[in-house]
Amino acid sequence: MQSTERIGQRVSSLFGSTLRHTPAEADLESHALLLRAGYVRQLAAGIFSLLPLGWRALRKIEQILREEMDRIGGQELSLPVVHPADLWQATGRWHQIDAILARFRDRRERDLVLAMTHEEAVAFHAASEITSYRQLPALVYQVQTKFRDELRPRGGLIRVREFRMKDAYSLDRDQAGLEGQYRAHYEAYGRIGRRVGVPLTAVRSDTGMMGGAVAHEFMYLTAAGEDSLALCAQCGYAANRDVAEFALQPAAGEPEPLAEVHTPGTATIDDLAAYLGIAPQQTAKMVFYATAAGPEAAGGAQPTVVAAIVRGDLEANQVQVQRLAGLGELRPAHEDEIGATGMVPGFASPVGIDPRAAIFVVDRSVAEGTNLAMGANRTDYHLRNVCCGRDYQPTAVGPVAAAFDGAPCVACGNPLQLARGVEVGNIFQLGTRYAEALEARFTDEAGAAHPIVMGSYGIGLERLLACVAEEHRDEYGLKLPVSVAPYQVALVALARKEETWQAAEQVFADLAAAGIEVLYDDRRDLSAGVKFNDADLRGLPLRVVIGERSLAAGGAELSHRGNRDRRLIPLDQLAATLQEEISALRAPLTLTP
Fold first, then answer.
1. What is the per-residue pLDDT for 6?
2. Tally of CB atoms within 10 A around 417
3. CA distance 275 to 538
């Protein structure tokens, strides 16, 4: 009986009940189904408990991740979630990261961090454990709890505060080694997506707080996603909109003299273009940001104002603005902060303004264009024929404008398509930032010391489970792939006679003895409709029904979740048939050698 209970579970004693109605807090259908099926429960905002069904599903995902990390040479370890602050201060992230990083003090007034990622800890240990080039390359990973104090958790498991992550860290002697491990993870993440039944799209991404030169995110494309992506169907170009570039022809022509014009009632770019009789593409606008002042700001210094200048028909991309300005977190600037620079909100331009008053980040389409209309820093007045470089000097020039639907692909010129996606995983080429900060070095063949070159690779487990639920569901409930489903078979007993119950009990024992994972609905006081509805909600791949009718016909009824076709299987052939069915379900999710 012990082995039966280990492989199988009775619904009558299952911790976690199904819900007839969708909870009010569920804002995604996949999350509603995870709640209704008894997989998860919310404990606090952005903090969820995994009930036994959810925990079994997560452990199956975890095992797939372990297998793929082991396949590329990973060594599993376990690192603390509580870190001393001095590690994060040494790398600069203590000051760089906002309140999403949970900081606290112990009873001895020492600053500590609840780790949201473990680059510092790995570099710290590498400093003592690796001394020679002979110990490189190396790859370590863990599956561990993380905490990020998200301001606005959403989508159930999509964006949470506490979660489990598979995070891996590569250690190499040079860039070539890092690129090799980066490619290995890139391929491994594709295999992981296939094995859990979730199609993943790799897109270029911002390195953000992690630093480094190159990064990719692995996205599950869905309208429920919170990330915006730019994709080219022709050449395969794919990037997060935060870093997506596109090809635009700047407004060209011989520079004409600067001229101020009275433009009453032109509150928008469209109003201005109509008043001047020009296209919006012949205008430029300014979007103002300021550095986010925090407790670390030395001496209460005034925020730095950043003025992003883009073509009038385009939007500014805040991530690119931050990168080109060389600053950390930015926020929208206040009117008084803009006014302090000498520019007038709503009618602003950099013309005639002290270049030290703000950081002027200019989009390429503006920097390379001529004769654009901009504000004159006077209410109801604009300037015509503004030319960057002649009339003002930019602090930095780059891809400041955000990609839009139909924008020309920077690689092939065909139109980009914007799509929504959920970031399941990410990979980063970190370089030597963490090794240099924490003195993680190795000696080469000649005895010279060099910083270790690092990479970082993460996947969120709960988020991946949420994407599985989003991909595999219908109007009746979950339809989980066999690789993730907590049990392979839902065994439903529909019995009035005691001998039918005994037959169902024997089937339960026989299937478990054959190594088949079974969730056995042995509840005696519920109707067939309730049991079938619960089985649909839970989304197990196969269903076996034992009842007087099936036994009289010679066996058990077998069906697939989502398919109402049923076939009768003799009881003495049931275990073998189910094993064949499970193998067939695994086949599309199994990797070819």
1. 67
2. 15
3. 61
